[in-house]
Specification:
Elements (H helix, E strand, L loop, with lengths): L1 H11 L9 E2 L6 E4 L10 E7 L5 E6 L4 E7 L1 E2 L16 E6 L4 E7 L4 E10 L4 E9 L32 E6 L9 E2 L2 E2 H18 L3 E4 L9 H10 L4 E6 L11 E6 L4 H11 L16 H32 L4 E9 L11 E5 L6 H7 L2 H30 L1
Parallel strand pairs: 1-6, 11-14, 11-15, 15-18, 16-17
Antiparallel strand pairs: 2-3, 3-10, 4-5, 5-8, 7-8, 9-10, 12-13, 16-18
């Protein structure tokens, strides 16, 4: 396998794996307030998630006050600064290539600060770089000369991010009709997830997303029909919403399920058996093709959609964590649910919480908590969509 990778590298003119730059994982990165400002700017922390540790430097410049972070051997890719979670906490952010192998991030600050700490924590497959900032009085601000930034344009003020193109999201509130789902203390799973889905649909539409739903009321929709509806709508993303029950004492909190690739073959057989040939892979009419060929085509489709589903799950866990929302100790898990079987549409099943758990049930009934969760899911969808746009743009080049 390594020999094949090397051959492809030589043929395509790409750098060998050992020379690949560390990439920025925007979904795991953020600018967060770590306390209150008490009438002034709050303490801040810049968190950068990279695929590998890199040499870095961090310093402050003035006129206006700015944080500068230089990274050697890091590729910021097509990620946009305004898509960084928490970018609205500061007047402006910009980043890009600096000199040679260096990239530079410039954060315009809302006042004078000092750098409390700057460090990097390498992991098995990632590296977490953090710069902590503390607000100070103007007399205590000690920046470097702004000559350190000579030749670089000023940061561009941030505008509210706009969609790069039409994004269609199919929301799937689970259960409904004669199937109420889990029940607890007079509440039904079907009703709770429908309320949440309607609020999420409104939030997504406010962002210019074409958000649709497999059901808009307390009606029953068969599982296969939910997938068909997503395919007919040419959905870019499918999000199934649930609030199941667990035996007393088991872990609670939100959980995200993505398709388990180990079940690909069985899923292909079941899809070929239960669906019309025009309803297996969007854009491909498999009418007249045998099950073996249909299975191969579905497997090929999943090699693209599986990592895209997993990427959305990472975006979602990041946004929930940064919003302080409780999650299951294992927030992302493999699943073989029917609604995750679609080979051509990135899909996740989001357990918002567990109706059997007192705290989770209280959250689901709390409009303020639902608003936070809605914002986290909508932020994740927007960030994921921009990652998708950048990825497809690179593939077209």
């Amino acid at each position: 396998m390594r020999m094949l990778a090397l051959v492809l590298t030589l043929l395509l003119g790409l750098p060998v794996l050992g020379n690949e730059p560390a990439r920025l994982d925007l979904g795991g990165s953020a600018l967060v307030a770590t306390g209150r400002g008490w009438g002034g700017p709050p303490p801040l922390e810049l968190r950068l998630s990279l695929t590998a540790p890199v040499p870095f430097g961090a310093f402050l410049v003035g006129d206006p006050a700015r944080l500068v972070v230089d990274l050697e051997g890091a590729d910021l890719g097509a990620a946009r600064p305004e898509d960084l979670f928490g970018a609205n906490l500061v007047p402006a952010i910009r980043w890009g290539r600096h000199e040679g192998r260096w990239s530079r991030i410039v954060v315009e600050l809302p006042g004078p600060y000092r750098i409390d700490s700057a460090g990097q924590w390498p992991g098995a497959q990632s590296s977490d770089l953090r710069v902590r900032l503390r607000p100070v009085a103007a007399a205590d601000f000690a920046p470097r000369s702004s000559a350190a930034l000579r030749g670089l344009p000023d940061p561009v003020p941030l505008d509210p991010p706009a969609p790069d193109g039409p994004l269609t999201v199919m929301l799937d509130p689970g259960h409904g009709g004669f199937d109420p789902g889990a029940l607890a203390e007079g509440e039904s799973e079907a009703n709770l997830v429908l309320v949440f889905a309607l609020e999420l649909q409104a939030a997504l539409r406010d962002r210019g997303v074409d958000a649709r739903m497999t059901r808009q009321d307390d009606s029953f929709v068969a599982l296969d029909q939910r997938m068909t509806a997503a395919r007919q709508a040419r959905a870019d993303l499918f999000i199934s919403l649930h609030a199941d029950a667990l035996p007393e004492g088991q872990a609670a909190g939100a959980t995200i399920y993505v398709w388990n690739p180990a079940a690909d073959r069985r899923a292909a057989e079941q899809l070929a058996l239960h669906h019309g040939r025009r309803d297996l892979v969007a854009g491909a009419d498999l009418t007249g093709q045998d099950d073996a060929l249909a299975g191969v085509l579905m497997d090929m489709a999943r090699t693209d959609t599986q990592p895209r589903s997993e990427l959305f799950a990472r975006w979602l866990t990041s946004r929930m964590a940064l919003s302080g929302l409780d999650m299951h100790p294992r927030p992302v898990q493999p699943g073989t649910y029917v609604v995750l079987k679609s080979p051509d549409i990135p899909s996740v099943l989001l357990e918002l919480g567990f109706i059997s758990d007192h705290d989770d049930r209280a959250n689901l009934l709390n409009p303020a908590w639902r608003e936070r969760m809605v914002r986290a899911v909508a932020d994740a969808a927007a960030g994921w969509a921009r990652d998708e746009a950048a990825r497809t743009g690179r593939l077209r080049q």
